[in-house]
Design goal:
Blueprint (H helix, E strand, L loop, with lengths): L1 H44 L17 H10 L3 H5 L6 H33 L7 H4 L12 H43 L9 E10 L8 E10 L1
Antiparallel strand pairs: 1-2
């Protein structure tokens, strides 16, 4: 009898402590809510607007306008999207391709002229001699026939390099337009991760004839 009476007293104390804790928590929440409401009323009375930590932007670029303006003025699509940090990449790429096209075109023109001069009968057209490195002669390249083949090979190579540079620059130009279009379409798309992992108590419903029991659950919240 004393054993059961002791258990009953412990149970009553446990229930009373839980009730007191709940009352304290509810009282604290009530005081917090009251303070928040009072602060909100004070701010509203003073004409202070409410600001959120993450207010949505009303700016939304027009994808078609971005593409058309980017096609007319390289890099202007990135400006309309307010992606200014991409401008050095865009213009740096265009400058690189412009240099490659200019260099390969100049060398192609040089070797084309030299190849024509070495094959004509005019002795005054000897530009092929001026491109020979200092200290070397035509004999170092296998004579006239061997040097002619070298000039023809260099001419073909630099023409191919020039054409490849032009094709790659056009492809890069298209990539900048696609980049501007995608940025405009996904401008307001929220990609910020908001993951939270919490452990909290839970009540496990009875199954297969077992009584209800307490446990701990893991909750993963994904925005």
């Amino acid at each position: 009898m004393n054993k059961y009476l002791g258990h009953l007293i412990i149970f009553i104390l446990f229930i009373s402590l839980n009730i007191q804790a709940q009352v304290v928590i509810d009282s604290t929440r009530l005081q917090t809510d009251t303070l928040k409401n009072q602060a909100k009323l004070v701010l509203q009375s003073q004409g202070v607007k409410k600001f959120t930590s993450k207010s949505p932007s009303n700016f939304k670029p027009d994808p078609l306008k971005v593409v058309w303006m980017g096609a007319i003025i390289p890099g202007y699509g990135q400006i309309l999207n307010k992606k200014y940090w991409k401008l050095p990449l865009v213009y740096g790429g265009f400058l690189g391709f412009a240099y490659a096209i200019s260099m390969n075109s100049s060398r192609y023109s040089t070797y084309t002229t030299a190849y024509k001069d070495i094959n004509d009968a005019d002795p005054t057209t000897n530009s092929y001699i001026s491109i020979i490195p200092k200290g070397y002669t035509i004999d170092n390249y296998g004579g006239i026939s061997g040097y002619t083949k070298i000039l023809k090979s260099a001419q073909d190579n630099y023409r191919r390099y020039r054409d490849l540079s032009i094709i790659m620059s056009i492809g890069y130009y298209a990539i900048t337009l696609v980049d501007a279009y995608v940025d405009a379409q996904l401008y307001n798309f929220d990609i910020s991760p908001d993951l939270s992992l919490r452990f909290e108590p839970t009540l496990i419903d009875k199954t297969y004839g077992m009584s209800n029991s307490f446990g701990i659950q893991c909750r993963l919240s994904i925005k």
